[in-house]
Fold these 4 entries.
Entry 1:
Amino acid sequence: MVVGVDGSESATEAVRWAAGEAVRRETSLRLVHAYFSTGDDYPNLEVTAAEVREALRETAVKRLRLAKLAAWAVAPSLEIETEVREGDPRPVLIDESKHALVLAVGTRGLDGVGRLVLGSSALAVAVHGRCPLVVVRGARSRSGPVVVGVDSWQASAFAVRFAFEEAARLGTSVTVLRTWSDLNLADSVTVQDAERQALETKVATVADWFPGVPFDCLVVRGRPAKVLKEYGERAVLIVVGTRGRNAFTGLLFGSVSQDLTGRAPCPVAVVRSDVVLLGAAGTAESLLLEGDGA
């Protein structure tokens, strides 16, 4: 488990969430702070580039120390590694994702140098990262299902898989949501029922790996972000994929993505369709079944 730390309260919440997750996964926690220095001297302020760099590093060390204490408050025996890295947070976190089970960030960064901004760093990881990204918002202590938004199966298979893994660890259920907005269908009830049955068939291929996790599939009329937020009010986690072609296309990009991750009542996990989950049972081929009708 890796957490991007920037000193904000939001990042501290991400650290607390990741500490509990690390315990459930029986793994260690890695806390990373990235800072960027221009390398310029400031003669008017009588400050050299080396002094600026050292000040930024000292601040980073202090923030990591506080983050480590926050993690230990959740899990006193947790093994925690910290590292200060110089550079743009975006490539730093993408590099960290190559060896992480999950990478977690907060929803808001601090103003100024070294900030971790949802619109840049987190979305960069969502697009280019090599592991699932969790944007932590809201309380994890709540009860409820893991809610996963589904578009095409090719785009959503690994998101569904991740949702079932999380539900198994938390001892809860999975609610699989698919949205539609066609208001001109003559027999919407029949079509909706057919869509739900097709979705259940697809999801069952994943559920077979988790016989102890109950699930239900819902086909709901409405806008994806709005529907997910509504169901997220009763959820412990929202999970979405990143490469759909229909209802959930672009969910993590532009206004819809900002609306969901910035306002969701619980953490939001982003799972890329081309990233194989570390430690997942079964193969990629077993999830990506022929066709993507659900």
Entry 2:
Amino acid sequence: MATIGLKNLYAAVLTNESTNTYAAPVKLAPAIEANVTPNWETATLYGDDRAIAEATSLSGIEVELNVADLAPEHYELLMGVTKNADGVIIDNVNDVSPYVAIMFELPKEDGTKKLYVYYKGKFNPPATEATTKGESFEFQTPTISARFLAVENGDWRAHLDTADVDADAAVVTGWYDAPYKPTPVAP
């Protein structure tokens, strides 16, 4: 089934990469659009006047999220900044955004959904864009961008189609409790 929407955008700060531990996920403003582009680099080895081998590597994942708003507390979370005593956020060239995971869902026309988590990315402050109001007006919403990477064990994304007969109901209902971690397999 085709997807027909985008909703439930969450972010969780990565607190310990070696154990894939995250702070509690925070629901962000309603999502309008998400563009996630994995970038793959391919190298080809040539010998005897022909291609004899290829290797592919994930070089990063570009993420752009258009949201209804970027509340100050979400800006602080994603950009790693803090409001001062006057309630003002001052962006500084030395600011360091934390690594975060993002989670969201894509509803499908049959009522099921596709669930996604991307494990490790850093967001950049959004550009400021505005248009004056004339005889008519349009909503102006921020777009935030990030570059995501794989975590130490190589995982970069997890996804689940709730229509899959193998989809674990407990995983589906707990999807936004924390970024998904597979259950360890008993020896």
Entry 3:
Amino acid sequence: MDWQAFAQQMASLARDLLAQESVDATLRRITNGAVELVEGCEAAGILLVHGDRVQSLAPTEQLVIDSDQLQERLRQGPCFDVARRAGHERVMRVHDFTQQADRWPDYVPRARGLGLGSMMGFLLYTDEEELGALDLYSRKPGAFTEAGEAAGWLLASHAAVAFSSARAEAQMREALTTRHLIGEAMGILMGRHGLEEEQAFDVLRKYSQETNIKLREVARQVCETGRLAD
């Protein structure tokens, strides 16, 4: 592997990741970057585990979704384990699916049926949070070498920082939008009903609680219609 060329490509990708305009765009750039930069990688995706549910993000092809859904259904698999830290591993490499049935006896033979030959999973994490797993797939057994694992790990490290940063920025934008909506809705209620600021907020909050509608959506309703639904 030409590590000098890889370093240059990785530096370019790292800058590109931070320039993306949304979380989805950042994730798509991560998985496409994995296919471009990691030797042997034919498909990639990001897997999140929410309790009993698995979420596939930015898959580069249907094979990734099929594997994720299979792991969700069976409650086992290398990427499933990495994402939920079942074995406390941060990296998982399955060299050859024809020889790896002991650890995941239900998943491996079915994965072979999907056409998988080998795969790698990397925990996406920062010092503050764990974000899921970056999963790399090949239809060929033995496609991923130690050099490929090192390259994948470097990519995952940059990806985790970019993912965390993009998500934090999106949450901040959402919080600012919510704050603006609530302020506008309070102003409408204050003007129409002669309420004080605290009273207007209490109206929104109580309506949200009684209808089980998020406060942001209640405020949006007031902004769009000028009133709360009966």
Entry 4:
Amino acid sequence: MAAAILLLSVGATSSSPPAVSAPSLLDALGIQAEVHPTPLHRGRRRLQILTRENTKPLRLHLDFGSLYRETAVPYTTCFQEGAWYRRGFPGPEPPGGPTGVATCPRDSTEWSVAAEQGCWGRCTEADLVTPGGREVIEHVATVIAAEVSQLLAVERVSGNLEKGYTVESLCLSDCQTTAFAAVDEAYCSEGVEADAVLSITKPPGFEGVAGSGSACATEARGRPLWRAP
């Protein structure tokens, strides 16, 4: 069981107004985080006071699967100009096939439309995740994660993070279907030696928005297990 699994959504920004951090789509839709039972603790009561002696620096495992065409959740990341992307839950298929008309307004109202009814949009050149852009994101995230790891300490747990998760149809299904995060099945079968997984996504940018995040899964004590855009 993890101290936390996090997901950060990186957004493109516009020059005016200044970019801000928006509430996540999960928060806007009122979706509650999936609860993951923990075998080591019962309930939400802390069993001991955290000190320098019983905690260790946070070990972060970075997951960039959402930035690659072969592993990203379909219709969530742009790799080709003119391709479809979806916001929220507008339905399983784009409107009208290849010649269909986009329903996402590319202006300041897009966020509210996505939260209220969902919509389909077309990828522009500015939305694309290119090899060069991905390299920059991965480099910056790696540097910052290394710094954060030395600033935070957690009570470590035995075993690999996430191994033994009860799988119904998908590993961490809520994170894949409501947070649109790429989740490798290995998280549920093998786990990873870390205290937290930081998953980076880059959906098409909202006007004036720098990024967002919210928990799509929590453990029994309420600690986040996955952060979602």
